[in-house]
């Protein structure tokens, strides 16, 4: 019996070390609710909302939307001193973000624009939309409210923060298999103004 216990401890330690090295772990992804059960190889991306000001709750809700709808990548709030792949900032302009897909070790920015909120756009939809850019989704304009990436063209009455099947599939594809085989983040800044 002691030998089996030692083997279990060794396997657990090896798994934890591999997760730290690769930036992937199923255990971290499981810390939040996720009806779309993350795969063992889910990529964990950390976001830093320390500069998001009044948008912190909207950003957390937007991250939850993605975590509940995809399984190959999970968004987790970075702890103090932890390097984040997605930096979220409050700004006075229109919402915007760097186009991903961001990878562990890379970094993109999301600007939660007050101008969009002042015009009547929903902050959670904005956050989910801009995080979608970080995950590699371009704008789909014009588009209906059922398309998260239609952004502002869906109008201020649209509060849908949930990606449609096509958007979910593209993000799943962006983070499937070995990340080394996927293109790095595009990096362009996409401004979501009407």
Automatic annotation (TrEMBL):
Keyword Chaperone present in the record's keywords: the answer is no
Q: Which Pfam families match?
A: Peptidase_M7 (PF02031)
> Which keywords does this Swiss-Prot/TrEMBL entry list?
Hydrolase, Metal-binding, Metalloprotease, Protease, Signal
- Which InterPro entries does the record cross-reference, listed alphabetically? MetalloPept_cat_dom_sf (IPR024079), Peptidase_M7 (IPR000013)
Q: What class of enzyme is it?
A: hydrolase
Catalytic reactions on record = Hydrolyzes proteins with a preference for Tyr or Phe in the P1' position. Has no action on amino-acid p-nitroanilides
Q: Which residues form the signal peptide?
A: 1-29
Listed GO MF terms: metallopeptidase activity
**Family membership:** Belongs to the peptidase M7 family.
The protein depicted here goes by the name Extracellular small neutral protease
Source organism (scientific name): Marinactinospora rubrisoli
């Amino acid at each position: 019996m002691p030998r089996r216990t030692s083997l279990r401890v060794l396997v657990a330690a090896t798994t934890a070390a591999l997760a730290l090295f690769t930036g992937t772990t199923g255990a971290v992804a499981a810390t939040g609710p996720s009806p779309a059960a993350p795969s063992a190889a889910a990529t964990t991306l950390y976001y830093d909302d320390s500069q998001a000001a009044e948008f912190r709750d909207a950003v957390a809700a937007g991250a939850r939307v993605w975590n509940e709808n995809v399984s190959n990548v999970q968004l987790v709030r970075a702890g103090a001193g932890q390097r984040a792949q997605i930096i979220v900032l409050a700004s006075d302009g229109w919402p915007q973000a760097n186009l991903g897909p961001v990878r562990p070790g890379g970094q993109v920015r999301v600007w939660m624009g007050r101008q969009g909120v002042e015009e009547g756009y929903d902050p959670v939809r904005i956050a989910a939309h801009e995080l979608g850019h970080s995950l590699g989704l371009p704008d789909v304009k014009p588009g209906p409210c059922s398309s998260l990436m239609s952004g502002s063209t869906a109008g201020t009455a649209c509060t849908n923060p949930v990606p449609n099947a096509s958007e979910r599939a593209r993000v799943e594809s962006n983070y499937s298999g070995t990340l080394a085989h996927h293109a790095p983040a595009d990096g362009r800044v996409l401004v979501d103004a009407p």
